[in-house]
Design goal:
Immunoglobulin-like; mainly beta; 4-stranded antiparallel sheet; 25 strands; 349 residues; 3 domains
Length: 349
């Protein structure tokens, strides 16, 4: 007897076909997942090119393995202005260098056949730690920290596209002085949280010279950022007991300039500085220019107790200044002492 197969036509009429065997159901195609594994992206400066490397992987049933060469990784940004791609090489690896704009870059690999399309975020919106000079902030505040004295590091955290980032933790790191680069031996020395304006103030005590680095670890939206710079601190010095005499003085006669050069440190307090050269200048009454006077020996070296004594000719009413290192309000690059100066006005008759 021949087999009878029941068929239901589109019209709903039941029919029988003799001699036809049942047709097995077609197996469903298995989809192959795909993913992009991006290496950590180094952002040196928010407005410079970045290099993105990584690997495209596929799982064909035996775990994740490298995708075949020839696939193309596309990089997209929210502005739809980025036109960057990378061709997958042997081992599934890829590399691309491009201008990321303000950030939030997505890497994407198209699907094909049974392989699914995939995408992942390469880097978030770029953030930047900068010095807000409009608020009076500098690399350090004060600009020249004294060893053993407190100072502040002030920074403002913003996204590259402009918005401030409040409530974020900013860390401060120190590395010893060296000529090697990149710097090693970083140690965290402080931290703080940005305020409603994105500004953070970290207070600490100055120590030896080296490098400082401020950093923000990033989050799900904004990228990590670091900012490093050389750090110098100086010993505070002072000229105490300074006096120009006699007063009033006689025009064309010699004045005696006398004082004591001192240095401060956290371990000793104020102590005298011996064998250091102290010089003099004068500024005539009503003028702003400092002039070099005629002094015996041009100045004087401090004795074992820090005292100096020099004799200079006086031309007219003037303010006299004794100074150590230089008469400007800034340090010399190869010195650990900060300059010191003291003034005294002398009336001439």
């Amino acid at each position: 007897m021949k087999n009878l197969v029941l068929l239901v036509a589109s019209s709903g009429v039941l029919a029988t076909v003799a001699g036809m065997a049942a047709v097995p159901a077609q197996a469903e195609q298995v989809q192959i997942p795909q993913r992009i594994v991006v290496d950590p992206v180094t952002v040196h400066n928010w407005d410079q090119d970045i290099t993105v490397t990584g690997q495209v992987q596929q799982d064909r049933g035996a775990g994740w393995v490298a995708a075949p060469a020839g696939l193309v990784v596309h990089f997209d940004d929210p502005r739809a202005e980025l036109d960057a791609t990378a061709t997958v090489q042997t081992g599934g690896r890829f590399k691309a260098t491009f201008d990321p704009g303000p950030g939030n870059i997505i890497a994407r690999v198209a699907g094909y056949g049974q392989v699914l399309e995939t995408s992942t975020r390469v880097v978030g919106w770029f953030s930047r730690l900068h010095i807000d000079h409009a608020r009076g902030d500098q690399e350090t505040n004060p600009a020249y920290p004294f060893r053993g004295k407190a100072f502040e590091v002030r920074r403002t955290l913003r996204a590259a596209r402009g918005e401030v980032l409040p409530g974020r933790k900013v860390t401060l790191w120190f590395a010893p002085k060296s000529t090697a680069y990149p710097k090693t031996g970083w140690k965290q020395v402080g931290s703080g949280t940005t305020d409603a304006n994105g500004r953070v103030v970290i207070r600490l005590t100055a120590w030896k010279d080296g490098w400082l680095r401020t950093g923000y670890a990033g989050d799900a939206t904004y990228s990590k950022v670091d900012s490093g710079y050389p750090f110098r601190s100086f010993y505070q010095t002072a000229i105490t007991g300074f006096n120009a005499s006699p007063e009033p003085a006689r025009k064309g006669r010699y004045l005696t300039l006398k004082g004591r050069l001192m240095r401060w440190s956290a371990s000793t307090g104020w102590i005298p500085i011996k064998n250091k050269w102290v010089s003099a200048k004068y500024r005539l009454k009503g003028q702003t220019t400092w002039r070099d006077p005629y002094c015996s020996n041009g100045g004087d070296a401090t004795d074992g107790s820090g005292w100096f004594r020099m004799q200079c000719k006086t031309p007219a009413d003037a303010t006299w200044m004794a100074y150590y290192l230089n008469h400007y309000a800034g340090p010399e690059s190869n010195k650990t002492d900060f300059p010191a100066r003291a003034t005294d006005y002398v009336d001439v008759r």
